[in-house]
């Protein structure tokens, strides 16, 4: 079995950034990371500033924005298509689930409310969001009346929502799942459905069909609220909650600090060596903001903040660069 190498790098930070938080979101456009939402105290949204971190100068700033600025929220998601960031849902300071869908144009710094009616996904938080060249995808999350397992796409060209078929009973409603696009399919990985889950499902938008995927190899333990990116044929996951707290969202459960890759061709999991225990390693955490980034010509994973095993919110930034397989 080839050993897959990967490297974590901790980034220095200059300027005034968002500070420690969890349940927030991050999106990257042209070597700038945009951070929105989150909490420092459980279930209390911090602010609605849009923070910008320049990945070249490692400096924070706060964007001067116009338009339909979203109110503060936690459990929110972001995804990028071109120079536009899309933001959906979350939970406000009254613990109300939201269904507002916004765009943010990074070339003009303008927010636009695109929808907040029944044309799109219902109210939810702690769902998952990813994007392809033309579509933004939303799956699952915590809805008004329980956990959800529906999949939606927003066509950024036609500017309309598409509701895909709902998966079967095997794919239970869940919060904090992994969601990414690989090999032309949309993949749902793990999540929390009252217990931590370890199942994988994928949807083929061409065939319009769901399938449950039987994986093999060095399978990660069940988990939720982890970081997920798709890089080529691989789905890479980091961290997450592997054992929930008895206090629910008010407490800290047991977290993982490991990196795994799922080869979507062979359907084999592999643990990726990542320098655990080093200062450059983020350690165990969950509820992070994460996004895919291109650095030095190689795609990788950016992780910002999150919650720690001590229930302290974190404010550090790390980049994971996957290496090549070697003997």
UniProtKB/TrEMBL annotation:
Its cofactor is Fe(2+). One of its GO terms (molecular function) is lyase activity. The keyword tRNA processing does not apply. GO terms for cellular component: cytosol; nucleus. SMART domains: Kelch. InterPro entries: Kelch-typ_b-propeller, Kelch_1. GO terms for biological process: glucosinolate metabolic process; nitrile biosynthetic process. Keywords: Iron, Kelch repeat, Lyase, Repeat. This is Nitrile-specifier protein 5. The gene is LOC110409890.
